[in-house]
Fold:
Amino acid sequence: MNAEELKQEILAFHPSVVFDEGGQFVNANIDAADVLTLLTELRNRPAFDFDYMFCLTCVDYKTHFTMFYHLRSLTHRHEMVVKAKIADVNAPAVDTVSHIWRTADFMEREVYDLFGVKFFRHPDLRRIFLDENWPGYPLRKNYEDPNMIEL
Amino acid sequence: MIEHNLLEPDMITEDGDFVINIGPQHPSTHGVLHLKVWLDGETVKKVEPHLGYIHRSIEKMCESLSYRQYIFSTSRMDYLSAHINNQACALAVEMGLGVEVPDRAKVIRTILAELTRLASHALWWGCMGLDLGAVTPFFYAFREREFINDIMEETCGARLTQNFIVPGGLMADIHPNFVPKTKELIKMFRANIDEYNQLLTGNVIFQQRTQNVGFLSKEAAISYGTSGPVARASGVSCDVRKHYPYDAYDRVQFKEILGTTGDSWERYVIRIDEMRESLSIIEQLIDNIPEGDIVAKTKQVIKLPKGEFYSRVETARGELGVLLVSDGGSTPYRVKFRSPNFSNLSALGHIAKGSKIGDLVAMMATLDLVIPDVDR
Amino acid sequence: MITLSEIAHNIHVKLSGAITNETLLSITEMAIVGIILLGSLVMLSFFLGYMERKVAAFMQIRLGPNRVGPKGSLQIVADTVKLLFKEGLTPNASDKFLFNTAPYIMVITTMLVIAPIAYSSGFQIWDTSIGVLYVSSVSSVSVIGILMAGWSSNNKYSLLGAMRCGAQIVSYELSIGLSLIAIVVLTGSLRMSDIVMSQADGWWIFKGHIPVLIAFVIFIIASTAEINRAPFDLAEAESELTAGFHTEYSGMKFAMFLLAEYINLFIVCAMGATLFLGGWMPLHFGADNAFNHAMDYIPGFVWFFGKTFFLIFVIMWFRWTFPRLRIDQLLNLEWKYLLPISMINILLVTIIAIFGWHF
Structure:
């Protein structure tokens, strides 16, 4: 499926999706509350069949967080990015997708560890790299390391 | 003096499981991987990786480095494919800038990447034997690896972390000895792969140890996001060089080797065959290095337009992705490395369940984990 | 030509001239033999350590030790000095008595086993009538030392290694026993000197048809497992259990395990050489002929050590070429293959012995 067809198909069942202009992939913007339904559809509909999640990450835009889901279909060989906006900066949270793609288990733990984004219904949400009682979330833009020396 | 029970409380859980911690300092974890293993006798019931012993927060560091600098900090992620990591980072910047890399640089980059892959696979092969209790292969593997490192040293100035790539091309031209030495290597390596097969592949004990253990089904391989030889052993066609060619991979002929069963043996055989394919790629390119510039003109201070740029390459272990988020400034706003080892490691708990402890070590060897790349 | 037994006899005559008391004489002689034995065993393990390094280097396209002493021959002395000066740590939570006793048990059992081995014609410490039985029974005591070491260390790796080792040694003991019995059946004696003498017209490996050949192969496999060497080194599998049962040992106590390992290696190879390859008996074919006389010019101890070190080289060769087995494969090999084969084999050997079909 090419980019235009993908956009049309997604808009047909999920009209609230907003697509970025240009860009390397098809970029679908959606609110974090609806992301699970969209991703479930993208995985399960045979026309999409996005069976391979090759990247999951988060970006701190100071005013909001954005979850990036890079998806690929190994059968149709098409790719797209779902960007889920999390408006709540103080207690960011989103539904887990680790039951859809098992690779998301570790990747979500990494995001939880470094950004502090909580994942609802994640089977084992613990910090993956850092100590359990590490203060703060290092990859947030407002993180300040008390031990850091400015050069 | 501290009083201890002979059996500490955590030695045996309430279910009667024997819990051992393999690592962070353990001969077979190749780095500082820490596996908590629940055992029933010798049988593995559950494996849980504990990570972060070598977490250096490279992603955070990159946010304060310029686009020229951040490339070099990635050599220390997957230190066995340092050149390929650099390539991925440079590709992302070039994508953002929209510059076209000169042909000569493209070909040289590709040859160096394949040399890196050969060196990495050679090391893996030696360690594979080591993990299964055969010490000798290690020394045979290092013979070729040293030769490759010498070629690298002559051209790049460093043996392991080459740092030879700049956005737009290469830092310097190749050494005059590069071409003849590489040709010599191809000849030598071809012959020595046969020796590898005689020494380890054909060994009955080795085959018994690796066949029919550590199954990773195709569905699981896809779901766990594995890539590289691990996924290809399960029959997942995922070679980035083939599907999303970068640099000079679109002008060479090579096979993507796919397995069927997805057991440890298949993962082993695929890497051996991949070495031959790498040699053939180098062979096709080494006589056809085009003349011309080695670096495209870029501005002194690189500024990327606002947006996201995702580049990917095939390292020796799988698909490395670099996601650059730019806000238009001279440093990246956010860098995310999609590390192949991180995803491959997440499948370990799945494939190791129910195996013997000796097989767990063999599986870790066939996953070919590099821990600094997992932790980043 | 002066033989080793004549030297020993002369010393005995000189000593009995000096010491008239019968008891005192035996005690003195025992002390002398004991000191010589200890010294020579340490020298032997030095040599085996050096040999192992050089063989390994030869297999691994490298040079091996070549800095300390001529051709690196003093490297192992330097290592021993290092081990002597190292602190012998005892873990806090260990069972200290068992922990410290285990290495001694290992060394003592191996030293005991050395007694009935025949080095040369009439040159033997203790020519007991139950020689073979004695060796196979006493050598199995060493498993107790390993289990003690593994249990008392209070280390999970050690415990796993010790349990593996227990299962392994107890299993392979059976095959070793059965393959030794094959020769005992043919000879009709457990006495070492009788076994050697019975090979005066040809070694058993040549005389005994295929069954003895099978017994010999089983003996080599099982004894490699018995002494925990690769590919059967599961008890100390370094890539799985760091160092297995001796993970927590350091300094001289660790060196004692090493010493025991090398002496064990020597013993099983000496046993194999004695039982299957004729011990100190030169290469003879048939009765009195010119070839046999020519072979007799080479002294017995040269034959004995030549055969023993050949077998040692074979076992080292195994170690540096084979990967390690898995624990279930190890036990399968014994209980499903080696044991049934050796049981059938002993039947065949018995038939050969009864009908006198051997040469």
Observations:
- The beta strands of chain A are 18-19, 26-31, 52-60, 65-72, 79-86, 93-95, 118-120.
- Helices of chain A lie at 3-13, 35-44, 104-115.
